[in-house]
Every structure is written in C-alpha cells, then in structure tokens.
Amino acid sequence: MSTDTQTAPRPTWLGLPPLAVGLLVVVLASAYAWLFLHAESQVVVLVLLAVAALAAVVGGRTGADRVLATAMSQHSRAMNGAIVAGLLAVIALFATDHFPLLMLTTVLLYMTAALGLNIQFGYAGMVNFAGAAFFGIGAYTAAVMTTQTGLPPLLILILGGVMAALIGFVLVIPVVRTRGHYAAVVTIAFSVLFKTFLEVNDILGGPQGLMVDSMKILGWDFNASPVLFGVEMSFYLNYALLGAALAVLAFVFTRRLERSWVGLTLDAVRLDDTASACFGIGITRAKVLAFTLGNVMVGMAGALYGMMISFIAPTSFTFSDSLLLVAIVLLGGMGSPWGTALAAFIVIVLPEKLQIIQEYRFLLFSVLVIAMLLFRPDGLLPRTVRAYIPGWRAKP
Amino acid sequence: MDIGLLGQYLANGIILGTMYALVAVGFTLFFGVLDVIKFSHGDVLMLGAFTGFTAFLGLEFVGVTDPWVQVLVVTLVAVAGTAFIGAVIARYLVLPLKAAPPLNILLITLMLGTAIREAVRLFYPNGSNPKPFPALLPDASTDLGNFTLRADSVILVAVGLAVIVGLHLLINRTRLGLAIRAVAQDEETARIMGINYTMIVLVTFAIGSGAAAFAGIMNGLYYNEINFGMGLLLGLIGFSAAIVGGLGNLYGAILGGFLFAALQTIGAVALPFASAYKDVFAFGVVIAVMAWKPTGLIAERTSDRV
Amino acid sequence: MTRPTTDAVLEIDALSKTFGGVTALDAFTMSVRRGDIVGLLGPNGSGKTTSFNAVTGIFPPSGGTVRFDGADITGLSPQKVYAAGIARTFQRSRLCLPLSIFDNIMIGNHGRLTKGLWFNLMRRRAFRREFEQGYEDARALVRTFSTALADRLFEPVGALPMIERRRIEICRALISRPRLLLLDEPSAGMTHDETTQLMDDILDVRGRIEGLSIIIIEHEMGVIERITDQCVVLNYGRKICEGPYAHIAADPEVQRAYLGAE
Prior knowledge:
By secondary structure, chain A is mainly α. Chain A has helices at 18-38, 42-61, 64-74, 76-93, 98-123, 131-148, 153-177, 180-200, 236-258, 261-271, 273-278, 283-309, 319-332, 337-353, 355-358, 361-375, and strands at residues 210-211, 216-217, 220-221, 227-228, 231-232, 311-312.
C-alpha cells in the first residue's frame, strides 16, 4: 500500500466502490457462516465448501480481494462495525440452538487464544508449543476458584489470564535466554510436563479432571437459559455473547499493539535481534512483554472455556492441542489477526461439520499445515505492511 | 534400600539411557549437517517399531520361527525401511525448506510427526490399540540377591552400546564420516571439495533414522509392547537430551541421553514425592538446565556473523 | 558546545579482542576528530568489523578502552552505546525485509519513540501525533537521498534494489541524530556507479549534519581517496599505518599487506 493512494484510481469491483464491496462481503460471509453452522447433511456441507473455494478463486481472479483490502484499510471503522454486527446477527439467529452456539463460542475462544500466540509467535518470533497448557492453566484456575472461593467469576476470568502469565514467568527465563530450537524445547517440555502433572496430581482431580462452576455476572447465571420475548434461549447464548466480547477485545488489543511502536519493536526483535540491540531496543523487555501478554490472552480464553463446558480434564490440554493452536496461527498467516480468526473457524468447525473427517482431523490439519508451509508460507490471509493509522494519508 | 534394588534401577536406567542416546544422536546428526531440527524423529522411531512388528508377523506367516533369525530380520527390515523413510523425508520436506526460516522446518516436521502418528493410528490394522511386541531375546536370568540380571537386558544394552560406538567410529573414522563432518563444518567448502552434498544429507538422515528404528525395536523388545503414541515422548526425550547435551555434538547427545535416564530414575526412586512425577521432574530439570546453560551443557559453536 | 571542531570524538585505546586463541584485534588505537570521515582499511579478516563490533557492544572487548565524547563506553551494551550517540550499518545489510521503509527507519529512531504500552494502545491521538512527526522526519531524511524513495515509505524493503537498501540502512542509522556513524562496507554488492552515487550521498549528509563524524570500512581505493580525511590501515588485527590517504597509499607496508594483495 503506498501513501499516494489519493492519486491512484480508487479500485472498484463490478463497478462497486470499496466500502460497498466490503459490506457485501461481510453480509455474504455472515450468511455463509450461518448456513455452514446450520448445515446437517454431509452433501450440503460439501457443497458449501465447494462454494467457499470457488468464491475464493473467483474473488482472487477478479480483484475483489484487493478491493476488500482497500475497504478494510480505508473504511476500517465501518468495516469493523459491520463484522461485529454480522457476528452478533449469526449468534442471534442461533439463539435457541445449543450446538451451533457452542461451536461458535469455541471458535471465538480459540481465536482469542490464537491471537495471544500470534503476539508471541507472529510478532515477537517466540514460538510457544505450550499454548494448550496455558489455556489449561486458565481453565484449571477457573475450576479451582469458582468452586473453592467466593470471588466474582468475572474477576476469576481475569485471574485465569493472570495465573497463566505468572506461570509463564517461570518459563520466561529459559525462553528469553535461549534462541530458536532451544526455546522450542523449553515450551514443548513444559507442555508435556503440564499434562503429566495434571494426570498424577490428585488435588487437581487427576485424570478425571475437575468441575467448573458457571460464569455469573451480578446474579445473572450463565448456565441458566435466558428467556427473551417469552422464548427460552439456549444458555450458550450467554457464553457466545461474552466470548464475542472477549474475542473482540483480544482482536482490538492485538491490532492496536501491531499498529504501534511496541508492535514495531516486536517485529524488529523477531527479524534481527542483533541489529535491534544496536538501535537501543531492549530484547529481553520486548520478549517478556510479548510472552506475558500472549499468555494472559490464552489464559483468559481458557478460563471462559472451562466455565462454559463446566468440566475439564487433562486430555483437553495435550501437546497435540498446543500444535492445533500453532496450526491456527500458521494457517491464518503469522501476524495476521484476520487470518487467525478465519483459521480458528476452519480448524474448529470443519471437523465438527464434516463427520467423515472428524476422526482424521489431526491428520488432515497436519498435512494442511505442511502443504501451507511448503507452498504458501504466508498463510491464508497474509499479513500486510503495517498501517499505523488505518486510512491515514500523508499530507501532500 | 538394598543393593539389589539399586542394581535393578541402575540396569533399567542404562537401558533407557542407551535408547535415549540413540534417539538424541539422530537429532544431533541432522542438526550437524543441516542446522535443522527434525521433530518427526520420534514418530519415525515409532514407524520403525511398527515396521519391525510387521516384519515379525510376516515371518510368522511364512513359518520362520527361530527367534534369532526373527530378531535379526526384524531389526534389519526396521532399520533399512526407516532409513529409507528418513532419506525421503529429508529429500522432499527438509531440503526444499533449507532456505526458509529454521523454525519452519521445526514446524513442518512437528506436523509431519503428527501426520505419521495419526496415519498409523488410523490406517494400521487396529492401529489405535497397543500391539504386543514379541519377546524374541532369551529370557534366562541370574539371581544376584534381590537383583535379577536378565539376559535380554544385557543383550539390549550390549548391542545398543555397540551401535553407539559404531556410529561414533562411522562419523570419526571413515571417509563417509569425514564427508558428513565436512558438510557439517562448511557446506560451501564441502561442495567445492567435490562432496555430493545432497547425497551426504540424505545418507545422514538415513543413518539417524535407522538409529531411531533400532531404538524403537529396543523399546519394543524391552517393554513387549508398542503403540502409535510411543514416538512422541521418546522423540521429545531424545530432543531434550540432544539439546541439553548441546546440539551438533555427538558426545553431548550421548551424555544427554544418559542424563535424562538418570533424572527419570532419580525422580522415580530417590525423591520424596510419588514416582509418577518422574517425568515432571525430568522435564523440569531440562527447563532449568536451559535457563542455566542456554546452548546446552557442551556449548554449540555460534556462527552469527555481524 | 564550546569545543573546537577538531576535538577527538572517539578515542580507542589499545582495544583487543580474542576469540578462543585467535587474536582478531590486537592493541588497536585510533581516534576520530569531530566532523571527520575516517576510512578503515585492511585485507579481509584484518579486524575492521571486529573493531566496530567491540565499539558498539555486540561483544565485550578483551582489553583496552573506548571513550566517546570523553565518557568511557568500554564494554557497554549495544543499547547504551546507541543511547550515547553511535549508530551503525552492517556489512551484510541487516534491514528487516518484510517491513516497510518507514518501519525500518523508525527502528533506528527507537530512542525517541514513546514505548509505554498504555500510550501505544490507549492514547491513540497522541500516538498519531508522534507517528506523524516520525513520518515527517523520516520523509525529510530519505528525501536527502532520493525524492522518489521518499514517496514510497510504506513499501516493503525486501522489494528494493541493493543501493536503495543501503540508503535506507544509512537513514535508519541517521534518524536518531548520532554524533558518530559507523559504516561497514556500504558499497558491498553494488556497481561502481552506484557506489559513486552512494558516496555522494554520504558526503552530502556529512555536509548537512553539523559535527557528524563517520568511520567507513571500504575496499575501493578511489572511494577512500575521495571521501576520507584520515585513514587507518589494519592487518592481522594490528594497526600498521594511519594518516591522510596520500600518506597511507605511499606506505610500503600498506602496499605489501593490502594494496599488493588485493
């Protein structure tokens, strides 16, 4: 994207200006998400997948993707608003259905966690193979605190993130001191250590796991089905709304971080730490910051996830689950928050919907990531050059 | 604790250490020639064990029942087959990414490991259940007080150590080893000296993977059971051992392997908490070692040119 | 600022660096006067880059002292050396290729950016002002090298040819307004014409920035002759000669060690 966009002709698609194209895409994408979550028959799911693939190809060929990108950067406020509205509309359409809402909320929480990993991995270059462990720390914190203390669950949600960050501090010394492969072994070792610890520790329920009490805000119990306009809604509606709020918050946070000097510093540390040091950048400070912020987000997502599914066990937080989180970041595109959102949807919803691949999902996603790394290493929605202020143009 | 029980733990620790060292040697070889981590190594090991198991079933089927012949054929088939797979992985997944960030290779091989693991679970007949690995070695034993010295353990350790020594001689005393070391030192110069670079890389991956298959067979013979998930932990332990020892250093890998086995044994025996915490303890120590010596106990040569 | 312009800005005294048993830099002594361009010469492996690395804190020297503007900066971290007012470029260009020109230059400006998380995330209006200021500064600086480049500040560096990358690297070093600039073989990998252009730029920059001193590592003798006020020649980590170009070019030891060999 160049600064002299005012002189360049504004791109259009089918004669439509960028904002119109952008809004159209949001409407279509929301409708698609609704249809996809709604689809029961395998044939319909397969047809929908084909439609998505076709739309991606046609959109790419006809230049719709570039017009969309223009809309995202020039009209970011309107576009972001439209996307949130689209998300809320989809949630509202499923207000009485348990399963689609559970899936959608899971997507939102995995997206939040993967955004946290994105800060660590995509920006600061610190690959964290213990994502599921930090997710689990949040969930176990929620389990212990909702059942053993009288703290308000909203505070516990935050404490889940704080606890993940605190335990992350134990790892921070080896992670920051080591580089590349050596740092990888630290997080992998922690991932295995964490799950083994949970399995052998009787206080935390051992292999059977723990109960988690529900989210409650000012007497509003999330596990009770709300009644709106005389209709009984799914209790997952509560979690979907809170999950959406958390995901939006995480997204805005990640975006603003990227579009700031802090994000620039993290990029510099990832790309060349020696040169960064020669320009005064504190490498340790940057890495500790990225690792901690990321873990807070992963931990909070885990805490809410625990409250939602109300029962957690060590098998949900294995090394394979950590790899799945890393796969989301890679598939979406490192450092690309929208890519993370899209990949979270694909990785979570696709196996649930396409039962023939349910059993094969780990195999499928690992092969998909291998292909992605070989042929499209920048991911589905590659990150673009940083625009600090969306829509900003230089004064002539 | 009496001396016999101590001996039992010691023997167990030595067997584990030999296995871990064999896995770690692979990691170190790959890192030496290509500066990459091939994380699928543990799952390649599992594949080796399953290849051996399949060979055993085949032998039974054709009526070869002599255990010595069986163990020999099983080992040879597993080592050769896995060595071939290792070379294929190097050729099609690792070499193409040589210019990419090193992390990408770690990631691609991590995913490959998952793919191998899942493929065995899904496609090997009844692959999600553990398989009873036959006890092909003589089960004679001598009682020394409380300590039972089993013949199969002695054979496993002796052959395992022989393989490690053999690898050491191969790397340090042969022309092939010289070529491998030359490539590890300086790829460009090695090429100019007329060394077939790609071939050496493939051979190195074959050797490392063969060693892993050997460790896989050892594991099967020792525990009399193999399963699709066995490679993950063994690979991780081998990786940790190679890292703790210092990547790219053969002695570091061996040291790391035995160190990890010692940690597990100490974790199981000598520490006040339950023996179930032995892996938690061992990995905790690995993390602590990394904090203390960020490039391993035997430091890796650094090559960051400014 | 009553100091006369001939004052030494950098004084390196008996600086040594050994790697294992190898002595890369052996009791190296030199000084740079304010406003001078000093050429650092020597065959490959003679310790030129090592001296830059030891001065900028990439690794601590094994012995000797470095004084900058009268203050002892021996063995300080790279961050502190940068804060003291020394900026550098690298032999093998070390720009962040996926990032934009602007991003790369702002990395060099790190010392003057507000780094607090709260400021960066929540005070977006103030951040915008700082961003716009940074943009103006970067644009003005790049413009001194190339007006065309100044209009493309938000394009990734990886797409640019080598000479533009070198210019951006120099901008990245200059944006923090250092008093000493270390240029490590800025002409490496460029054609003769490009080198000439770049050297014009460097002379131009020196003329614009009051009191800026430069040490430049360079192989091409024509370049050295044209732009330097003083030269220092290294061989096997030892200084073998120093003085104006005419003096070192006539020195028999230099001819033996360097000119003859190249």
